Amino acid sequence: MAGTLTLSTKTSPFPWAAAAIATYTEKAELSFDESASGVTLDFEGSKITDEAEIVRTLAKAGGLSDESTKTQTYFELAKTLPKVTAVPAILTSLDSLDDYLAFRTFLVGHDITAADFIVWGALKASVKLIGLLKNNKHVHLSRWYSYIEALDSTQLAQTSFIASKARSNKTAASFALGLQNAKEGEVVTRFPPEPSGYLHIGHAKAAMLNQYFAKMYKGKLIIRFDDTNPTKERTEFEETILEDLSLLDVHGDILTHTSDYFDKLYELALQLIKEGKAYADDTEQAQMRDERFKGIASKHRDDGVEDNLKHFAEMKTGSEEGVRWCVRAKMSVDNPNKALRDPVIYRCNLLHHHRTGDKWKVYPTYDFACPVVDSIEGVTHALRTNEYRDRNPQYYWMIEALGLRPVHIWDFSRLNFIYTLLSKRKLHWFVDSGLVRGWDDPRFPTVRGIRRRGLTVEALRQFMLAQGPSQAIVSLEWDTLWTLNKKIIDPIAPRFWAIEKEGIVPVKVNGGPTTPEVKTLPKHKKNPDVGEKKTVFASQLLIEQEDALSFEDQEEVTLMDWGNAIVRKKNLDDSGKVISIEVDLHLEGDFRKTKKKITWLAAPTPEHPLIDATLLDYDYLITKKKLEENDELKDFVTPETEFREEVYADANIVDLKKGDIIQFERKGYYIFDGKSQDGKPEFIHIPDGRAASIASKAGSTADTPTPARQARAEAKKLESMKPTSDTPVDTKMYQIPQVYGDLKSVETPVETKMYKTNNIYDS
């Protein structure tokens, strides 16, 4: 990036033209600063604050500049159009643009220029203009507008705007201000996972926010294993959690365990009993739950201190009598906040503890241990999800009742995603049922699963910080996260080619080399630092059936990285499938005027073999966006969630290492997952945030294209929208059935404003 474009989402109207051309040309990085006034481009030592001048500068730097008189006219139009208030006057301008675009792809010339961006930005920034455009009265203008809107670079600009706006809302603004009563060098945060499973994306938010604040204030982050329940915990889970944190690039300054403080916690429980702030209770669990709900005091609530100490001592031995009892904090019987109705703070568990062995038969609950250990370890700010909000008074009560140092609580919303389960119990069910291959399955929301799917730490970090400590409890879409991820991987992902095996079509290239030739090409056309690859050029090629079917007789197409070719012959079998194609190489042809740019591979030879590979794509594990409490999980399991596509890939992939992220051009982004048992390379598709890549595929039939094909079809649809030449535009008029009479005499309901001309096809 040569420059920086500083913007604020609060600017009105928002400078969409500047943002869109910055991402299109990649000559300026977007930087959102809500304190900024207007828009500023820092470029090659100069500061530019006028949007029109910014668009001109970036267009020139990106090779889009056009200084014709027409361009200046459109800049003037963009300046005046948003200021017009009378609807008839606005419609006159829109009509003029629509008429002009009836036979044109772009406003000036055959390629996108600054004129397109400045006018598009003016329309985008005006609610009134967009509203009038949606009336479907300006089909050509709408087609042009939709094309600019659909560009990957424009989508990136809009996603960045949305993410920044989320950060600048009321809650996120308080997040930006920092922690309450925080002092640089003194802040201590903690991440306290239970060593009973693998971390998931919800844990990732807590871990990253805790590290973020610790670094912001030059403080410390404690990683503390909350090992107070021997029933669930194992040493191996501690190891996997540390590995998961490492995958997230989260590294604590101190590693501790709640079990380090069992002796101290026991002493403090005795202190509460002796001070009359806790009591022993043998009420059965179901009855205790009912009494707490109804606000009924336990029959043991007013027992004497000696009796309570005796029962606690019996609990410590783990005797038959002792295991009947628990210890409850004496907070309240009927407080409206049910979390304060005498919660249990100690209970028996006779199982072997993975660190302390059989020393203890009694263990503190999380509600008791957490505030105590936070205070003892010097934690200044405890970050908790707001599902604990009702328990916050309980947290403060424990500290106050024991006379401990206070801790600030900073809560934020739990992270939920549509079609996604975060419950350990439900995830266990998928593993135990054999519906996934393990806790690192790319369909799982575990840290290992999402990393294996190709999600980068940087994208995850940006997304978490954009959320901040939001209090909104919502199920988020995955699109913003995957779009952020694409923004990070696209500039550095090497480009390769892969051709689907099913229905593969051989192509004879007349004018091609008599023997295969190998040329060195960049792996990424826009980033030479990514490296180089070897591409084989030959007179016998392989292309995909889908591409071959789309070819018209005598059509000129572009063979990517080679040049144009004219389709001379297309041979079909009885079912209509293409079995071979013959083309004439036409390298002097203009690739900008062809509708179809296709990938291809030279037919394999002993000297230049192709690689058999498998492309994997996945669906959500459940068919419902959000499971309700009474929903039966097995009723909403997606029938098919893994999709495999066998391909030939170019030989350059042999140098990849497991975890490398690449792009198979016209197919999408993939992460190399290693080799299968039979030695075949496997690549997992990385969603890019587009609708086709993140939509649920549940309900697909055998006739429905695979997700990979759906995504590719969407990409090709956008590709087909690119400029070709100044030919009449397909207006997609309504098809009138013959039953209504002579088609030539039927008036179509679409107002196209096409120029009146004689039909050249009439004899």
Task: Please sum up the structure shown.
The protein has 763 residues and is α/β, with parallel strands linked by helices. It has 23 helices and 31 strands.
What does this protein look like?
The protein is α/β, with parallel strands linked by helices and 763 residues long. It contains 23 helices and 31 strands. It has a 7-stranded mixed beta sheet. It has a 7-stranded mixed beta sheet with strand order 25-22-23-24-18-21-26. A 4-stranded mixed beta sheet has the order 2-1-3-4, covered by helices on one side. The chain is 33% helix and 20% strand. Residues 169-177, 700-708, 717-733 and 738-748 have low confidence and may be disordered. Helix 4 packs across helix 7. It starts with a strand and ends in a 43-residue tail after the last helix.
Number of helices: 23
Specify Rg, calculated over alpha carbons. Answer: 32 Å
Strand content is 15-25%
Query: Structural class of the secondary structure composition?
Result: alpha/beta
Largest sheet: 7 strands, mixed
Unreliably modeled segments: 169-177, 700-708, 717-733, 738-748
Measured between the Cα atoms of the first and last residue, the distance is: 57 Å
- Mean pLDDT comes to 87
Number of strands: 31
Helix content: 25-40%
Q: Describe the global form.
A: globular
Strand arrangement, major sheet: 16-29-30-31-27-28-17
Catalytic activity: tRNA(Glu) + L-glutamate + ATP = L-glutamyl-tRNA(Glu) + AMP + diphosphate
EC number: 6.1.1.17
Pfam families: Arc1p_N_like, tRNA-synt_1c, tRNA-synt_1c_C, tRNA-synt_1c_C2
Domain GST C-terminal: 25-173
